Amino acid sequence: MPELPEVETVRRGLAPLLIGRRLLRAQVAERRLREQVSLAEFRRVEGATVVDVRRRSKYLLLDTSAGQTVLVHLGMTGQIWVADHDRPPAPHQHVVIPLDDGREIRFADTRRFGLLRVVAEARLSGHPLLRGLGPEPFDPALSAADLRSGSRGRRRPVKSLLLDTGTIAGIGNIYACEALFRAGIHPARAVGRIRTDRWERLLEELRAVLTEAIRAGGTTLRDFLNAEGGPGYFRIRLRVYDREGDPCGRCGRSIRRIVQAGRSTFYCAGCQR
DNA sequence: AAATGAACCTGTTTGC
DNA sequence: TGCAAACAGGTTCATT
């Protein structure tokens, strides 16, 4: 569900609600997430103030005055928002962190692929969850020339490279498909057979689609909600994702669906080579 | 070494 | 109508 634009949307919504607030004692209804939720970890931020809300790849980072950071991942169906404490609990609401203003942070996750951890800020960059991440898509250090040279001779399908968070962080299935369509590159094309100018174009289109999606508040297919509990509006602007059989808006041919590495890929055989 | 498939979960949609 | 299979935005581990 949530890829970079959705997590960034949540980050922007949470930041003004959380910065300056104190975190009180966490309540855990279900600890069996992707990793076990630890009450002991949350004790380390009890009474601490949130000083910043950041994002790295698809992770949210709540930095606190205790020098500890709450690391949040939404998996496929995770939601995190702020609610008044007297609101009834949402379905699959697993963790609540009360705030000092009568409200509380709520985390719900139907499929439980998400996680919440508390990590010392000084150890964040070396932490196993973050250590292997590649550059952010908007990092100016990410270059077409590097992608080209790193791909020479490789036969890996380009879509699989986009989904590899060790190469570029934060891209998921929707925006990988959309960026490839916009760049006119076939998702199965071997990375070693893409020239530098096409890498330039792909990087450009990737950044453009992410920017537009963030501006629209992300894509809601079924579960995604922002920090205010509302949906994102980028879905209607998707050109290929989840549009199998629809006519391509550019050439009119039918959008195809194939499976790559066990995941659906949507593309236009007329526009993508 | 690199790529695919399975696994982790629950809910919804699709097809017979 | 009912049931089973397929599928879902992510990540990691095991297996070719």
Q: Mind sketching the topology for me?
A:
Blueprint (H helix, E strand, L loop, with lengths): L3 H15 L8 E2 L10 H5 L6 E7 L2 E6 L3 E6 L4 E7 L8 E6 L4 E7 L5 E6 L7 H4 L12 H8 L6 H5 L10 H11 L12 H20 L40 E5 L2 E5 L6
Antiparallel strand pairs: 1-6, 2-3, 3-4, 4-8, 5-7, 6-7, 9-10
The protein binds a DNA duplex (16 and 16 nucleotides) through loops.
Task: Describe the protein.
It is a single chain. With 273 residues, the chain is of the alpha+beta class. 25% of the residues lie in helices and 21% in strands. The strands form three sheets. It has a four-stranded antiparallel beta sheet with strand order 1-6-7-5, covered by helices on one side. It has a four-stranded antiparallel beta sheet with strand order 2-3-4-8, covered by helices on one side. The chain has seven helices and ten strands. The mean pLDDT is 95. It binds a DNA duplex (16 and 16 nucleotides) through residues 1-3, 6, 32, 34, 58, 73-77, 92, 109-114, 154-157, 160, 163, 165, 172-174, 219-224, 241, 260-264.
Entry keywords:
21% strand, DNA-binding, alpha+beta, 4-stranded antiparallel beta sheet, 273 residues
How much is the average pLDDT?
Answer: 95
Written as H for each helix and E for each strand, in order along the chain, the element string is HEHEEEEEEEHHHHHEE
Considering DSSP H and I runs of 4 or more, what fraction of the residues is helical? 10-25%
The radius of gyration over CA amounts to: 20 Å
- Major sheet attributes: 4 strands, antiparallel
Shape: globular
